Amino acid sequence: MSVQQPPWNIPDRTAPEPVLKIYNSLTRTKTEFVPRNGRYVKWYNCGPTVYDASHMGHARNYVTQDILRRIMTDYFGYDVHFVMNITDIDDKIIIRARQNHLLENFRKETKSLSSELINHILSAWRSHVQGKVGKGLSESDRPTEGEEESAWPRLTERIQDNAWKQECLKRDEKFDMYFSSAIRTLSAIHTAQSRLDNGQTGLDAAHQLIDESRDILAQSLDYQLSGTVTDPAIPRSLAAFWEGQFFKDMARLKVREPDIITRVTEYVPEIVNFVERIIHNGYAYEAEGSVYFDTKSFDNAEGHNYAKLEPWSKGNRELLEDGEGNGN
User: Fold this and answer.
1) Which of these, 77, 66, 74, lies nearest to 35 by C-alpha position?
2) pLDDT greater than 80 at residue 111
3) Is the Cβ–Cβ distance between 162 and 318 less than 8 Å?
4) Alpha carbon distance 90, 235 (integer Å)
5) Do the beta carbons of residue 196 and residue 115 sit within 8 Å?
6) Distance between CA atoms of 64 and 256, rounded to whole angstroms?
């Protein structure tokens, strides 16, 4: 009789293993999460565009993602490799850095309060009212060019009417911000003019005027002198500063750090090559210095479906303008 091992049975589970299910935006149902490589999960997260301070929207976004990440690692036991990208170069960063640079130079070069300085900022204020504030105004409310100051008291009265203000915000979602900048700058101009009339021409008075009108003045200086700022270190310095501030904010919120941080500036050659391949494949085209994705070519290609998440939204001009920031 041959010697045999004793029988063995698979033990019964004392409790069911948790199964992770995730809402699938394509099927609009919850489906089981199936990693490609056992318990190892790669997670790529789009980080911030670092050109200014973080706000509540950032906090809500990254705290939410941190909670989900902790659930996957601490409860479901996945080995999550978390990569965050930092957009440290784009139009917003370049423009903000350039404006800050021009404003700082202007501030350093200004030695006293003068009528020339006041007129310079008043001219910038008028352009701001016509351009930025004017986008949210109806045709009947928009002041005639050259009459911005005389029309302003009526506009400051009208903005107290919430219904009127909401109509302006429908035309331009940034209307309230632009209007507030105009109020602040005009008040600073009047204060500066009063000081000048009383013989106060000191450096502190000049700098206070510049500081309180910085949003409008920076745009005006940028319009006049943008071509003079060419040093790539200027936008990089701004991005590095705000990246550091962002991670300080995340630390205060107890958000776990990424396993790896990538930055757009570190992958520019790869990005250029990737875009060139998309153009070569016929799914993008160049126009006026920019590259645009060709949705029609992609949609007509076999195996591709551009609007697969919301096919009923294809061609919706309102959604398109909302996604593009209404062209502002």
Assistant:
1) 77
2) yes
3) no
4) 9
5) yes
6) 12
